[in-house]
Design goal:
The protein is mainly alpha-helical. It has one domain.
């Protein structure tokens, strides 16, 4: 299969979208009230939206893959 994303980028985006973004969102949502950090809802929503965007890019790469 040939994807429009290079395999190294696919791996980085997959790890970022599936592990990093959700972990950072939960971490920020947990510590923000305790430390008085600004805009917890908006920041968590933005991180989660970025994770979904990454998932869509990965899915689009999978759907448009061509047989070699």
């Amino acid at each position: 299969m040939q994807y429009w994303l290079p395999s190294w980028l696919y791996d980085v985006l997959k790890w970022t979208g599936l592990v990093f973004c959700p972990a950072v969102a939960v971490f920020y949502a947990t510590i923000a009230p305790a430390w008085g950090l600004p805009y917890p809802d908006q920041i968590v929503l933005t991180i989660n939206a970025a994770g979904v965007l990454i998932g869509v890019l990965i899915g689009a790469s999978q759907i448009t893959a061509k047989e070699v």
